[in-house]
């Protein structure tokens, strides 16, 4: 059984790897996708889409490992880095910090599901995490990802899905 430091180290490695996995999966679909190389940034990935009008739409995404639930907080450290001495404090994601949380759930055979959670929902739910079973309609729902900044559309769709 690994000790706490080893588990924390592995969780950190998994988190970084999952950011790359999500970027790769999104790159195949949207092409113009990039990891953000800013350690204090509240988002991990930028997705740039050209809309039909010719305007570029930029989506800021935060990646979270999601086994049974997805967390909406950031700024904390675990494992060997738990005594992180920074002025960064724990925060809950919101439209001010990112546009969407992407919960990456590892499946068998090296496959993955992605849960696209627009940050506008986090304020409505008033919770720091959500069990994946309760947000099943957001699983691999690229329509939600592409419209994550359209508050009215998101609220109407999520009411239709029964998740708000």
Top keywords for this entry?
single chain; 164 residues; alpha+beta; Trna Endonuclease, Chain: A, domain 1; five-stranded mixed beta sheet; 9 strands; globular
Structural account:
The protein is of the alpha+beta class and 164 residues long. It has one domain (4-161): Trna Endonuclease, Chain: A, domain 1 (3-Layer(aba) Sandwich). The protein is 30% helix and 26% strand. It has helices at residues 4-30, 120-125, 142-146, 151-161; strands spanning 33-35, 45-50, 56-65, 69-71, 73-74, 91-92, 100-106, 112-118, 129-131. Strands 1-2-3-7-8 form a 5-stranded mixed β-sheet. The chain has a two-stranded antiparallel sheet with strand order 4-9. It is globular and about 55 Å long. It starts with a helix and ends with a helix. The mean pLDDT is 90.
CATH class membership: Alpha Beta
Shape: globular
Strand order, biggest sheet?
1-2-3-7-8
Number of helices: 4
**Helix/strand structural class:** alpha+beta
């Amino acid at each position: 059984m690994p000790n706490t430091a080893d588990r924390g180290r592995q969780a950190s490695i998994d988190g970084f790897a999952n950011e790359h996995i999500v970027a790769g999966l999104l790159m195949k679909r949207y092409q113009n996708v990039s990891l953000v190389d800013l350690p204090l940034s509240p988002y991990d990935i930028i997705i740039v889409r050209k809309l039909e009008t010719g305007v570029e739409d930029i989506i800021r995404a935060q990646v979270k490992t999601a086994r049974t639930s997805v967390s909406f907080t950031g700024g904390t450290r675990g494992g060997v880095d738990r005594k992180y001495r920074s002025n960064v404090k724990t925060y809950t994601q919101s439209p001010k910090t990112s546009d969407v949380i992407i919960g990456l759930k590892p499946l068998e055979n090296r496959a993955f599901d992605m849960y696209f959670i627009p940050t506008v929902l986090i304020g409505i739910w008033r919770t720091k995490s959500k069990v994946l079973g309760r947000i099943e309609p957001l699983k691999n729902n690229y329509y939600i990802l592409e419209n994550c900044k359209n508050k009215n559309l998101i609220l109407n769709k999520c009411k239709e899905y029964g998740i708000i």
